[in-house]
């Protein structure tokens, strides 16, 4: 709705007459105002209508109000005579412009509160004068909001290029329309066709290069871009790792004065006082417990603890087999021995088998006997051969001087060898050439000729005992006395000053003999001549006999002999093997060490040694002069070798102290345990027995009888509970007394093809334990002992000791029991025997009656039981 | 000085003690019960070890310090007591070594 405008009548000059009429009610104002100003009164309603309320829309400061002409006319029409603008109706209608100015007259200058400006000129005059600042502002605004006009385009010639590049059609596009005339109404068939198929390939007009027409391209557009060549590289200075390095040629030492100063200083005292308790504490700890125990090892169950598990899988592994066809043909090995110092050297003796022994004379000539030295790893060529006068049954290396070997022959003689000349050869080098160059004798050429064939050196024996004084039967066992004591002519053990083993004990089925290697006293005169020979040192050739024992050759007599008269009956025992107790003395340690050092480097000159007189030497009382002897009949005899005097002053052997018939046949092995000095293992016949020295009641343990004959045995060198037994069928039984005492822990079947004659163990290194097994066919086999059999179980020694003690106790108990019960039984038996011849019949009757009684008792018992069960 | 001597003697007299070396902070031996060459060798070697050990402890915790060191080997044990910056003691212990097995050959 158009706002009602309050019209203030505006005076117009043209309409004066009419207006005057209207304006007569206000003549008072006529003289006060000009013609184009018409004061008017506006009622409040009109004011509201035209929005010019006093003090609201129109105020003193802004007294102007522009009213629309149309609104005024409208108001006049609506309100007619009541309208305030009625008097100025004509002026308003004639007003040329659209807006009429209404001014609020505060001061009533023209007599009324409002006045209307009738002419545009007056309006402009009043309005513009009274509001000058506004148009200025308007002008400024116009300047700022003006948009920049585009500048005229200056052609730089690019429109030509654009025209050139633009593609315009040179001619109109040709349009072809193809029609196929068809008669309508015909049947139609629609089908699909693939346009890529060959048959209906769409015909295209591809562009092709026409040879008639070619355009040479004169100009080609190519783009260029300058690219800078970039190369990245890095550089870094190496930073050396700082490390403290110092070299010192001489240790820095403080001078004496400085040392003293420091020692005297208070600081040192304080320090020592403060630190001492800690140190003592640590020492105490070390005292209390063993700080060096390896906890892991102590925990370890490993291979050591479980004997049983490992035993089954591992066995004796055959390492080498030594056979010598030339010498072993048809012979059996009688004895085997490892060289005590040279590793891998083993000596073997061959003897003819029993059957061939009949024709002794021919045997003597045909095949001489040898001790054959084998060395690892050469399995067929022996290293050294030692000539023997006859088959050697037993031999042994001297413990203090391994170059000396003593052996016992079939004919009862005792033979000595000295192999010191061949030691370099035996030690593994092949100095055949060396030997040839060393010796200047004429046999050089002989040597050189033989060198190519690599012939085994042969050495002859140094000395052999005299025929009268030797044994009458084959020497079955030979042992050296330890260097700790020696024996006089009566068997009294005395001190051994020379600290060497110089005495030998031999045994054969007729007796036991003690021999000495040194020059006997009685022969001093004869030696005066021989001494000169000895002093001239002749060059040794391989074939010469060393003169070490020349003083004994063929004149060697034993010191004394020990015979073994039987305890109960007359006659003598026939000893096959014997075992002495090794005596270790500590009294001469001071001197002995010196002697040892000398002895090691200088070969003892046995010919220079004399058997000292018995009086000059100190008697050793604590040497055990008793020894065990195993006989041909399976008896173990314990006897004393000291000779006793009878009433006539003659020396004779005492009766043995003990004799036990434990074995059924020959005793073929008697060996002391390497761990326990007083434990002895004997095998013979079909069983083995363990003896303890000092126990007089018998063997402390007898193994079960086996089906196979036991032919050889030896203790293990590293495990105190293990020993090996060789059988007649060529098997080896491994016994472990801690595991099983009734049967062998393991049997290695048919290790050899025939009867095993000798087993000897040897330790070359901590992991290399060998077992040499000799058999009846002359073959020597060397086995590797597996870890299970060579590494001892924890506390094995202790347990073995306990075992032996237990067995000992058991034996004692048994003997006591036997004593208690044996006597009455004996008496009974005797009484029975007495009774029997008198009343044999009654005895029988009695027994019959007793039987009947028993039978009736049994019947009664049976009845009662049946009643019980309800049958 | 007498006290120091007495203490050293007392420790030396303990069972299993092989020797004592007293050295200064630079590792130069001051007093020793062993022969000169071994003393010098031990002093030099142990000095480096102690320096290293001490720096290790202090690296981990600067408030901490090395008080005692024991170096145990198969055959013997070395005990080291380092001091503030002056001396440290060195002991060698050899006992409780594993038993040797005795074996007789027949």
Which helices and strands appear, and what pairs or packs with what?
The complex is a heterodimer of chains A (871) and B (106).
Chain A: H1 16-23, E1 37-40, H2 44-50, E2 64-68, H3 69-79, H4 89-94, E3 99-104, E4 114-117, H5 120-130, H6 133-144, H7 158-165, H8 256-264, H9 266-288, H10 295-299, H11 302-305, H12 307-313, E5 317-322, H13 325-328, E6 331-338, E7 345-352, H14 360-366, E8 369-375, E9 384-388, E10 392-397, E11 404-409, E12 414-418, H15 423-426, H16 432-438, H17 444-451, E13 458-459, E14 463-464, E15 477-480, E16 485-487, E17 493-495, E18 503-508, E19 511-516, H18 524-535, E20 558-562, E21 575-579, H19 589-601, E22 626-631, E23 635-640, E24 643-645, E25 651-653, E26 658-661, E27 667-672, E28 679-684, E29 687-692, E30 701-702, E31 710-715, E32 722-727, E33 732-736, E34 746-748, E35 756-765, E36 768-775, E37 780-784, H20 787-790, H21 796-838, H22 840-869
Parallel strand pairs in A: 9-13
Antiparallel strand pairs in A: 1-4, 2-3, 3-4, 5-37, 6-7, 7-8, 8-9, 10-11, 11-12, 12-14, 15-18, 16-17, 18-19, 19-20, 21-22, 22-23, 23-26, 24-25, 27-28, 28-29, 29-30, 31-32, 32-33, 33-34, 35-36, 36-37
Helix pairs in contact in A: 16-17
Chain B: H1 2-12, E1 17-23, E2 29-32, H2 36-60, E3 69-72, E4 77-82, E5 88-93
Antiparallel strand pairs in B: 1-2, 1-5, 3-4, 4-5
Keywords for this entry:
heterodimer, A: 871 residues, alpha+beta, 5-stranded mixed β-sheet, 4-stranded antiparallel β-sheet, 22% strand, disordered N terminus, B: 106 residues, 5-stranded antiparallel β-sheet, 2 helices, 5 strands, 34% helix, 25% strand, globular, disordered C terminus, Roadblock/LAMTOR2_dom (chain B), Roadblock/LAMTOR2 domain-containing protein (chain B)
